[in-house]
Every structure is written in C-alpha cells, then in structure tokens.
Design brief:
249 residues, alpha+beta, two-stranded antiparallel ribbon
Length: 249
C-alpha cells in the first residue's frame, strides 16, 4: 500500500492524508515508509496498527488509545485502503481517457441536467466545464430540437424502450456564440443505483459535410454532362440524315 490522499478526485470533499509507518527505516521496493519512532499519534485522527507495533512504545499514552485500532480490524482497514488506492488509480485512468478525448462527451441525468463535460466538449461547443455543469442540456441544443430531446428522455425513463440509444445520428448543435454546426452523435445510457444517466459522444462533422456537399455537386455536374452527351448523340444522328438529303437536293 502506498501513501495516498483521500477522497481522491471527488469534488467538494476535504483531503485526508494517509501516512505509513514502519518498525525500520526504509521499505522494500519503492513503497514510501516513515520510521515508527517518528510517529506522533496526537497529530492524527486515527492510527491503524496491523502488527501491534505501537504496543511496545512507551510514549504511546492511554489517552491516545481512542485513536488506535489494532488486530484483525486494523488489517482489514489497511486492505481497504489499498483497494481504495487501486480504485483511485482506475478512476484517474478512466477520467483521463474521457477528459482528453477529442470528441465531445456530455452526460446528463434524468432531469436533463449536464453532469459530465470533457475537454473535447469545451473545444467543440465553446462552453467551459464550469459554465456547462449543472445547466440544462438546452444550452447546446438549438430549436426545435430542444423540446424533442426532452421528450425522448422522458419516454425512455417511462418505457425503457430505446429509439436512438445505441445508434449514430446526425443533428445540429449550438456553440456558445450561437452558431449552429452539423454533428454526429451516438447515445448511450447507464443505470447506477436506480438512476439513469445519458451520455452523448459528439463529433463535429462540418468538414465532412462540406466534403460530402462538394462530392454531391460534382456528381450532379457529372450527371448533367452525361445527359448533355446523350442528347447530343441523339440529335446528331437525325441531323446527319437531314444534312445528307439536303446535299442531294
């Protein structure tokens, strides 16, 4: 177990310092370990003694015994701290992956309130994380899709029948400056302790849409060219016949 800070990355909670002490200075590997003689129990709110190392300390007064937990419970709590550390590491990895994604990842609750908003969303939509969190999703949805999206959410909450969840669709989104842009969005939903959370992964497809429009225009021009060529061919044959009779006359 390593020295960690609790409650990790949870917002709104004060940090809790955890320091490891040992009977001998140093520790195997790279695990930080403070020598036991440097322990000052009065400086801590709680002392876990999994190996009864404090029992032989003369300077450990009975008044401090209320802060001391020994025996199997201490070992259990030590294991729990290690598990919390592993969860903290996994949480940091997952949060780092989501936050650094280039696509916008926005999560809302059943009330349509934004509770998740990554850096990709800041870049694409223009709102900072502080500006977006706690706001209604209407913030980034242009009319007339605002009311329709709320209806989708309410219908899923009531029926659990998915119509757009799990699919990629193309819609318009709205940036902070009020401009609209085409986006590709995929929807997913997660149920955590009876509460539903909806996540949209948004990709700005402005360049893709412009490329598709240019390609469509090229195809239209090509179709016009083929039509002109066909008409010219159909007109050319009777004109040659008419020209031949005209020369004979």
């Amino acid at each position: 177990c390593r020295a960690v800070v609790l409650p990790f990355s949870l917002e709104g909670y004060p940090p809790v310092d955890i320091v490891l002490f040992g009977s001998r200075p140093g520790a195997p590997g790279d695990i930080p370990l403070t020598p036991l003689p440097e322990l000052r129990p009065e400086a801590f709110d709680l002392v876990l003694d999994g190996q009864f190392l404090t029992a032989g300390r003369r300077d450990f007064s009975p008044a401090e015994a209320a802060k001391l937990i020994t025996g199997p419970m201490a070992r259990f709590l030590e294991g729990l701290v290690c598990q919390l550390q592993e969860l903290h590491q996994k949480q940091e990895i997952n949060a780092g992956i989501i936050n650094s994604a280039t696509d916008a990842i926005v999560t809302i609750n059943e009330d349509h309130i934004i509770i998740g908003y990554n850096q990709g969303a800041e870049q694409i939509l223009g709102y900072t994380r502080e500006e977006a969190l706690g706001q209604n999703l209407k913030l980034i949805i242009p009319s007339p899709h605002k009311e329709v999206h709320e209806q989708y959410v309410r219908r899923y909450v009531a029926t659990r029948q998915a119509h757009l969840i799990g699919k990629h669709v193309r819609l318009n989104a709205q940036r902070r400056d009020g401009t609209e842009f085409p986006m590709s969005i995929s929807f997913s939903v997660a149920e955590v302790r009876g509460n539903l959370y909806f996540t949209g992964v948004i990709r700005d497809i402005t360049e893709t849409k412009e490329m598709e429009d240019r390609l469509l225009q090229s195809e239209r021009l090509a179709a016009v060219g083929n039509t002109v060529t066909h008409i010219a061919h159909e007109i050319k044959n009777p004109l040659l016949i008419i020209g031949g009779f005209a020369r004979q006359l």
